[in-house]
Amino acid sequence: MHCNGDLKFATLVARAEGMGADFVATGHYARVDLDPATGRYRLKRGADPAKDQSYFLFTLDQAQLAHAMFPVGELDKVTVREQARELGLDVADKPDSHEICFVADGDHAAFLERQAPMAGAGAIRDTAGAVVGTHEGVHRFTVGQRKGLGLSSPIPLYVVGIDATANSVIVGPKDALERTELTAGGVNWISGAAPEPGARVTARIRHRHREAVATIEPLGTGRVHVRFDEPQSAVAPGQAVVFYDGEVVVGGGWID
Fold first, then answer.
1. In sequence order, which residues have a C-beta less than 8 Å from that of residue 232 and are 6 or more positions away?
2. Torsion angle of alpha carbons 138, 144, 149, 155, nearest 10°?
3. CB of 132 within 8 A of CB of 124?
């Protein structure tokens, strides 16, 4: 989830007034249009590259896009703030939010512990399987993490894997983070049809990740195999991988 709700919502209410009940307007920096060649809806990047939020919307389907509007998608944040001031909205100068908005204290691990049972303490292992330390719960770690490991080592160590079944965190050197391929499930193709095997795209494995050129092979039943031209660091299970063809979102899924 991504939030900067008050400013966007208030601006949208003012801009979308009279739009009618058949549409939902959101404050995401993204765009939607109708492809004249196919008659199908396209989800596109926001016009402002620094604020583009199309990554978060890859699960939308044709029926949803037909009733979606992104009124700030053609604007940059400076213009949104200017329009909010012109409309007399008291959130016009509210700072941007950068965290999950419903976790008030910013302690994500504690929030998860309150919501569901967690396995608790377990082993930190190196890539050979040897125990090199202990942890207080795998939900406190993510692939690529370096800080907070509590380990003494002659070389920097990173989280290179998480085995929730064994309640283990696996650490290794930075080069152990690199991957040239991944598979993903829960895949949604925006057009409603999977691309041809071997389709070339750019793929984003995190919101702020620099997109990488890749080849995708749909596997059927909502799955896809992705092969990168160049190794990518910190491919994290549970994160979304989203595919682009220029400014158009092709689709995406959940890395496993």
1. 178, 179, 180, 205, 212
2. 140
3. yes
Greatest CA span in the chain, whole angstroms? 64
- Strand 122-126 with 168-172, pairing: parallel
pLDDT of residue 8: 53
Question: Is 246 buried (19+), middle (13-18) or exposed (0-12) by CB count in 10 A?
Answer: exposed
Neighbouring CB atoms inside 10 A of 124's CB total 21
Map tokens 């984003």 to a residue.
204
pLDDT number for residue 3: 52
Residues β-bridged to residue 185: 254
pLDDT value of residue 2 = 46
What is the chain's alpha carbon radius of gyration, rounded to the nearest angstrom? 21
Q: Which residues of the chain have pLDDT under 70?
A: 1-21, 98-99
Supply 65's token pair: 């896009």
Q: Provide the 10 A C-beta neighbour count for residue 86.
A: 10
Element (H, E) at 226: strand 223-233
Nearest 5°: the CA angle 155, 158, 161 is 135
Distance CA(89)–CA(82), nearest Å, equals 10
Per-residue DSSP letter, 193: S
Integer Cα distance of 129 and 125 in angstroms: 5
Q: Which residues are catalytic?
A: 3, 101
Distance CA 22, CA 96 (A): 30
- pTM of the full structure: 0.84
Contacts of 48 (CB under 8 A, 6+ apart): 29, 75, 76, 77
Question: β-strands 240-245, 199-204: how paired?
Answer: antiparallel
